[in-house]
Write a structure and sequence with these properties.
alpha+beta, 153 residues
């Protein structure tokens, strides 16, 4: 079997569109994840509202298994080394990362990139996932983002 049909079977190249934004999507761990295909200037409230419009919220990393699955999704989509924003921030208190939408603290076992978080130049208050780890960075970079949509029961 060639690579393209195998990827199509996995749902990697499934593309949906919401509010004029194109997404790759994949379901695992009882949720659907939407990865924006085109980089744009990130805004936590705006992107979370877009995710809400799809029935979810910006990615909330709840455990290592979820972080690993998202990393594989990024790899399969060709965006493993790109900046992809999650829904985590420490805007309320430096170094105390929580989820913007649910207000839950970031999973304590989340795998940070080497020497992260570092709040470089005192202005890194959002979180991105890239190359298997997470990193704090400026909240307004041009990048992709990922939504998490719980399956309805």
């Amino acid at each position: 079997m060639s690579l393209l049909p195998a990827l199509l079977l996995l749902g990697v190249l499934m593309i949906s569109q919401t509010e004029g934004v194109s997404y790759n999507n994949r379901s695992f761990l009882g949720k659907t994840y939407l990865l924006s295909r085109d980089p744009e200037r990130f805004d936590l409230a705006t992107m979370n509202a877009r995710c809400k419009g799809s029935g979810g919220y910006l990615l909330e990393i709840n455990n290592y298994e979820e972080q690993a699955h998202v990393t594989v999704f990024l790899y399969d989509s060709g965006f493993l080394y790109d900046i992809v924003y999650t829904g985590h921030t420490d805007l309320g208190q430096e170094g105390k990362f929580y989820h913007y939408d649910t207000k839950k603290p970031l999973f304590s076992g989340a795998r940070w990139k080497w020497h992260q978080p570092d709040n470089w130049a005192g202005k890194e208050h959002c979180v991105n996932i890239m190359d298997g780890g997470i990193n704090d960075l400026d909240c307004h970079r041009t990048a992709r983002y990922i939504c998490e949509i719980p399956l309805q029961s």
